[in-house]
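Record 1 of the preview.
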Amino acid sequence: MSTFPVLQESEGEWTSDKTVEILGLRIPAYFVPDPQLLHDFITGFQTRRDDVFVVSYPKSGTTWVQEIVWQIYHNGEINSGKIEDRVPFVEEATNPKSTQPDIKTLPSPRLLKTHLSYEAIPKAKNKDTSCKYIYIARNPKDAAVSSYKFMKSLGSSTGLNAPWEYYVKLFIEGKTMWSQWSNHVLGWWEHRHDPNVLFLKYEDLQKDLLSNVRIIADFLNKPLPDDLANLIAEQCTFKGMMKNVQSYLLRGKEDGPKLLQKGVVGNWKEHFTPELNERFEKEVMAKLKGSGLELDFEL
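->
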């Protein structure tokens, strides 16, 4: 029987979000009522050949890529159904309060979302059940800001009671949800040449969405005619997706929280002091040295 530490940092009256450590990752406690059940679900997961996992560190463009993949598989259809119903979240699969479909009984092809590390994610037992993984990476300064705003929008359910300055300190130290950013992104970056892994960058999608829609479609063996590629790219801009904003409200609540926020590059500059930026460079970005991974922090 495994043990699953419940983790919550504190400093004076400030507290971090409450997480449970499962498979080396800090997973938010608010949707893991039974850690053993989730652990067993992930480790016993049987992949299918046509499964597609959309993977990221939180707040890195997951919802964006989920919608692109959905539209590729559905000929550019705009569906007002909740994104978590159309592309269910692996880590919520054992939460009895979740209303998303049962992943195990979903018909193929299954389109799935996850924030699991490369080490933890379900993999094929043999080549006949080998599936595809699309990983989206975002510069971690913007990801940190977006994570903090999202966590605050969830209210007291997360246990987070802290200002931005304390949250980003925890982010740097790998003590927020899904643990250390650099470990997560580098774990997937090392497998970017695997034939069933597509590694994307959020900022590249911002620069040229149409080209990346085509790249995703080709990776999925679903090449698009020009008119459909253009349609999907237009519908999957931030402006286009905001026309269907009800689809991206967490748990379907009309007053939020929203899975879509600003959808910009460089918002971190409004939140980082020079001192904080220097620490972030030394303790987070320095870990990428020698990896070949480079990210844009402004466009």
